[in-house]
Amino acid sequence: MAGYKEWIENAEVKIDYYSAFLKTWIAFNAWYNEEIHEKTDQQCIERICEDSRFKSYITNLLDADDNESKAFRNNIAKLHESLNNSPIKSQDYFGVKSNISFSMVLERNRKSEHYVVFRNINYRCNKNHGRFITVVTDSKRGIELLNCEQEEWNLDSLKQQTDFENLFAERKTKCEECYIEMRPYIESSVLSISEDEKQSTKIGAYLFIKNHEKIAEATIKILYLLRCCLAHGDITPDKKTNDVYRYAYEVLLTPLQKLV
User: Fold this and answer.
1) How far apart are the first and last CA of the chain?
2) pLDDT at position 234
3) CA distances from 234 to 35, 226, 228 (A)
4) How much of the chain exceeds pLDDT 90, in percent?
5) Is the confidence at residue 138, as pLDDT, over 90?
6) What does the pLDDT average to over 62-73?
7) 111 near 122, Cβ under 8 Å?
8) Residue-wise DSSP of 129-158
């Protein structure tokens, strides 16, 4: 007959949090397909981040101080901690892969044009119907030094253009600086290095920026990227990764249940 030691050693229930997270995501997916009318999942997620009931519920949970909100914030902290302990490389998002993290969140660059004038040289980069057009002009002499049109943003491809290679070093640098302003994404962090209560908010043992809307947006994007990695098999199913999906499941479930 088994004694209490055997019962204690086997007391922890082994839950498959990968399946739990996916099941919860399927429910979330069904909701946003009905309420958010976009062509792709990524476009739906962008809309949800901009303005949605789901985002509002997360923001409210971050704002409030009841037991449910405290538990939710604790799960956000645990998700952050588990991602640090088990780095997971994201799927392509705005054309870039990176470790999924609250310290580097990608936002869509809303700029359609960037323009700089330096030493009588005009640098203009703009996006028109999905194409990137880069023009460098000598305004003093009225000469076009570079005119490059690309189907996608690609700095290496721009630098390989003959007209770019023929630019003086200073002009190459200025052209690159102008072009980088038009990259499809902007990197940001929702973690804070300041302990000033006016600039930061404590979630668990971690300092986040004092902007709950931005934290909500970051959370939604992280959940989406974790869904993509799991659905495409781009993870190592070990204990540390299971912890990531444990807290991702908890974070997703709480605001999801409020949609009913």
Assistant:
1) 47
2) 86
3) 29, 9, 8
4) 76
5) yes
6) 97
7) no
8) TTEEEEEEEETTTTEEEEEEEESS--HHHH
In 3D space, the residue among 55, 34, 2 whose CA is nearest the CA of residue 224 turns out to be: 55
DSSP 8-state symbol, 211? -
Question: Exposed, middle or buried: residue 143 (CB in 10 Å: 0-12, 13-18, 19+)?
Answer: exposed
For 65, list phi and psi in degrees, rounded to 5: -135, 20
State the Cα–Cα distance between residues 4 and 143, nearest whole angstrom. Answer: 87
pLDDT in tens, 110-124: 899 999 999 999 999
Q: Which residues contact 57 (CB under 8 A, 6 or more apart)?
A: 254, 255, 258, 259
CA distance 32 to 135: 41
Residue with tokens 């009318």: 37
Give me 64's structure tokens. Answer: 């409030």
* 76: exposed, middle or buried (Cβ count in 10 Å: 0-12, 13-18, 19+): buried
Q: At what angle do helices 17-35 and 53-63 cross, to 10 degrees?
A: 120
- Cα radius of gyration (the chain): 23
Write the DSSP symbol of residue 122: E
Q: What is the three-class DSSP state of 89?
A: strand
Q: How far apart are CA 197 and CA 143, in angstroms?
A: 54
d(CA 219, CA 242): 18
